[in-house]
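Researcher: Here's a chain I'd like modeled. Treat it as a single chain, no partners, no ligands.
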Amino acid sequence: MLVDDRQADPAGAYAHLRVGLVDRLLIAQGKLPAGIRLLIVEGYRPLALQEHYFSRYAARLRRANPMWTEEFVHIQASRSLAPPEVAPHVCGAAVDLTLAAADGTEVNMGTPVNAGPEESGGACYTHHPEISPEAWANRRLLGDAMSAAGFVNYPTEWWHWSYGDRYWALMTGAPAARYGPSRMR
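Model: Modeled as a single isolated chain. Structure tokens:
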């Protein structure tokens, strides 16, 4: 596994993951072919940072769509970025990642990590029909490895994988989330 610093924050929270997630990432890494590595972009995200990201994105949508109600802005922002009150990153139960060659060169996944639906024409959605065959194959490789390790994908972001949060519980039928909000120490 490799760690990328593009989402680095002053406290280094982005590189923190719960032990249970690390164990599962090691399983996923073991499912990948030789020469391909998981490239971790972001794990834990402090609540204040999640609030900042969400409000910044909502403000961008509001400026671009001044006729939208506040409720509709919130709904549309929630399609691509979890509202702070339910965000899996603040639980330390989510990881944003991609695939890379052993030297860290990212493979073609159809969009960069964190490319929103507006800028990617919707190609950020995991199963978007208009990405190249190479990107499809790479997304399938990532998906197979992560799913085999017990993660679930958030379908509007091919790079976002969860284990133990509320979304994971919903998708797997678990009776409850394993993890609640976390505070990095």
